[in-house]
Amino acid sequence: MNELETRQLRYFVAVAEELNFGRAAERLGIAQPPLSRAIRMLERQLGVALLERTTRRVRLTPSGEVLLRDARTALDAVTAAARRARHAGETTPQLRVALKADVDGGLLPRILEAYAAQQTGQPVALVLGRYGEQAAALLDGRADVGLLLDPAGARGLDFEPLRTEPFLVAVAATDPLAGNSEVCLADLAGRTMPGGEPADQGPVSEDRCRFIQSERSSAASDLPEIFRLIELGSIVCFFPVSLTDRYPRPDIVYLPVKDLPPATLAVAWPQDSRSPAVAAFVRAATATAAAAATAAAATAAGVAAAQG
């Protein structure tokens, strides 16, 4: 069997994510007939069917599901190799830190201060993105290290937990659930999240985000827009409690979700990273989080003693 080419993998991934040859062709900037021929040739080359095609729909076969997973990894590796080579050749290399704005538990300024004190020689550049994009940024070379929520499902990354806190669900003050002291996921049936996902499934994990974001939707992309849609009752959204403390809003109610696991903020990096700057950032992040936890515990103990 001849070796696969990156072009073949890109074509297949587009079709597998869109599950529609017309949309995949538009996404790739090519005509549909050559795309269809390329996928048929790929199937003949591999000796397996990758897609089940009917007049109504296209779906992946078990072989197609395996190839989609591994093709994404392979394409990320190729892209990352090129990006990291360019980054290494920069006159002043930077440490690129991926994160979702406001989802740092308030730790980022202190982490950056602790990192700068280590004098690695690499200034920090922040790579901001939507929730769930951070793992992809680490794997495809756009970022070197990141602050992620619940990265355990992301393949190809190592991580260290920094802090754990409850998730709250944000609903409109006019929502019938707003008067509850807490809810469970089943109570959210029929409601959707910013990306259009059913809210009763809980927050979207890192390993599902790429597929969801590949779909065409009118998903809100920034926090003010998300808040506005929540206020209008169009969507609900899950936030870690540290973020809700920073953004109290009169037209939004934040509710505990009793059957939802807590959110874990972690510092994460590619498994094959050997960067001293990444190691320095990880040390700074873990030390900062430990100091913050110690301070919070001391404050809580002081409050308890005063009340007692």
Terminal CA distance reads: 75 Å
Mean pLDDT: 87
Order of helices and strands: HHHEEHEHEHEEEHHEHEEH
User: β content, as a range?
Assistant: 15-25%
Work out the number of β strands: 10
* Principal-axes shape call: flat
Q: What is the CATH class designation of the largest domain?
A: Alpha Beta
The biggest sheet, with number of strands, parallel, antiparallel or mixed sense and barrel status, is: 5 strands, mixed
Q: Work out the radius of gyration.
A: 22 Å
CATH topology of the largest domain: D-Maltodextrin-Binding Protein, domain 2
Based on the structure given, which CATH architecture of the largest domain is correct? 3-Layer(aba) Sandwich
What is the strand arrangement across the widest sheet? 4-3-5-10-6
CATH superfamily of the largest domain: Periplasmic binding protein-like II
Helices, by number, come to 10
- Low-pLDDT runs: 206-220
**Number of discrete domains:** 3
The level of helicity is: 40-55%
Instruction: State the secondary-structure class.
Output: alpha+beta
